[in-house]
Amino acid sequence: MLHVSYATAPAPGAVNQDYVIAGPGWVAILDGATPAPGVASGCVHDVPWLVRTLAGSVMERIESARTLSEVLAEAISATMSAHAGTCDLADPNSPSSTISILRRTGDQLEYLVLCDSPIGVLHADGTVEVIHDDRTDHLPGGRPYSLAVVESSRNRPGGFWVASTEPAAASEALTGVVDVAGVRGVGLFTDGVTRLVEWYGRSWEELLASASESGPASLLVQVRAAERAYGLPRPGKLHDDATAAWVVPVLRDA
Questions:
Q1: Is 42 within 8 Å of 87 (Cβ atoms)?
Q2: Average pLDDT, integer, range 98-124
Q3: Which pTM does this prediction carry?
Q4: How far apart are CA 202 and CA 230, in angstroms?
C-alpha cells in the first residue's frame, strides 16, 4: 500500500487543468497544456476534458499487469477514440497533458514521467533523486519558444513528448524502479510547484522536506507567496495551476 496526500489549486481566477488520481497502490498527476491565445486546436473539447478523460483511461488500466508505458499508451489510444469522431486528431495543437505515475509492485516502486511534471524520491539515507523529463527546456531558439517551434517539436524525435494524440509517446517517457525499503517518501509535482526550484532558488532537498514535514499544501502556499514577492524571472505566466502529491510506502506489517 501507499499513503498518498495531495493538494491542487488553479491559478487565481482560472480553471484548474491539473488532475490527480490515486488508488491503494498508485498515484498519478497530470498537467494539461494551456493553449496559446487565439490558436485553434482542431478539438471541440477543452483541456480539462482531455485531462479527465486521459486520467480515467489510466485508472481503468493501472491495476493490471501491464507496464506503466503500456498503461499510458493504451490510455492515450482510448482517449483518442473518445473524440476521434468529432475532432481533428492530426492537428498539431490538439489538447495535451503531462503525466507522472507512481505504482507499487511488491517491494518496488515503479515510476513514469512524461514531460515536465517531475518526481522526487527522498531516500532513506536522506539523499534525493529527481526524475525530470526536461526536454521542453532544450528546444531550439531559446525561450520564449515560438508556436512554430512547439508545433514542430511536439511528439517528434529531438523535440519533446507529451500525452495527446500519439500513443508512441508513452514509450518515450522516463521509467524506472526503486526499492521500497530504501525510500522515505516520494513527491510528484506539476511545474506550477517546481518553479520554487527552477525560478525561486529552493533546492530539491528543501522541496521534499517541506512536503514531508508540512504536507503538500504547504508548497502551494510557498509558491503563491514567491510569485507575489518576486514576480517572473523569465517570460511566462505569473501564476500557474499547482499540484503536489506526497507518497509514503506503508510497511507490509503496518
A1: yes
A2: 97
A3: 0.96
A4: 13
